Backbone:
């Protein structure tokens, strides 16, 4: 019987592989217009900008919850990647129009960590870290930011004033049958913590994207985020890094999210109840 040989991906290979997937074709001028795979608005910087905003949020100012589930993996030099947790999360966004070419985004994120076998919520519980061999207490991932997304000279910039960061947003639009797709990543500053990179593909209705009357576009998406391990893991970067991979959709409201997620959100982020409001 023939035996198939496999070569494990180490950390360097994983980063190069992810970058290679994201890089081709992200510059709009890299490919000629093809009516089978593109629509006219995709070559218009202003329409491309507003559709990116409509996918990411809601231009009416209404709360837009991006709900997702996935896996939290460890990537190491000396062994195969390993699923450490199941993820369950929502990035809640308010999008406030400043001008035709500028929007303020208020982002609030809460991520749950579950046992990948039992699916038990692990917050506040001891967890044996397989990387260091030490027990740690699991904490949910809590973050937030207020940022500006603007169109300048045909380029989209993602600006976080509090962190003094400015990132170029790379977009690659395409269409297939009744669907349109937006592949995107941000160019993070060189002085940021390493490794740190996020890749996102959003799917939406092709006809809806060509109609600019609605304040938001419904979407499903896949996302991959490469980052150092969570702080509660107390794991040095030299021992590896994490890869978050998840799929999700834009939910109608926070009230439509699963009950156990909303209970954990209320427990750890009670200050968001007023900010979320009736949404």
Residues:
């Amino acid at each position: 019987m023939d035996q198939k040989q496999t070569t494990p991906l180490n950390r360097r290979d994983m980063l190069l592989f992810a970058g290679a997937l994201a890089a081709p074709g992200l510059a709009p001028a890299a490919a000629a217009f093809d009516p089978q795979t593109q629509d006219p608005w995709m070559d218009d910087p202003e329409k491309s900008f507003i559709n990116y905003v409509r996918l990411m949020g809601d231009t009416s100012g209404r709360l837009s919850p991006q709900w997702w589930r996935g896996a939290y993996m460890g990537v190491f030099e000396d062994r195969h990647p390993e699923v450490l947790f199941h993820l369950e999360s929502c990035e809640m966004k308010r999008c406030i129009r400043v001008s035709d070419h500028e929007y303020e985004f208020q982002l609030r994120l809460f991520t749950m960590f579950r046992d990948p076998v039992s699916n038990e919520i692990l917050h506040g519980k001891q967890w044996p870290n397989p990387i260091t061999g030490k027990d740690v207490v699991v904490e949910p991932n809590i973050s937030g930011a207020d940022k500006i997304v603007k169109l300048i000279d045909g380029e989209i910039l993602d600006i976080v004033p509090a962190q003094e960061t400015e990132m170029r947003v790379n977009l690659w639009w395409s269409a297939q049958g009744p669907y349109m797709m937006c592949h995107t990543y941000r160019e993070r500053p060189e002085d940021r913590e390493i490794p740190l990179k996020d890749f996102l593909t959003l799917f939406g209705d092709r006809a809806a994207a060509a109609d600019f009357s609605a304040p938001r576009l419904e979407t499903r998406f896949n996302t991959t985020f490469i980052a150092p391990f969570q702080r509660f893991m107390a794991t040095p970067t030299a021992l590896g890094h994490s890869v978050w991979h998840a799929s999700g959709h834009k939910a109608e409201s926070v009230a439509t999210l699963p009950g156990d997620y909303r209970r954990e959100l209320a427990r750890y982020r009670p200050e968001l109840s007023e900010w979320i409001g009736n949404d």
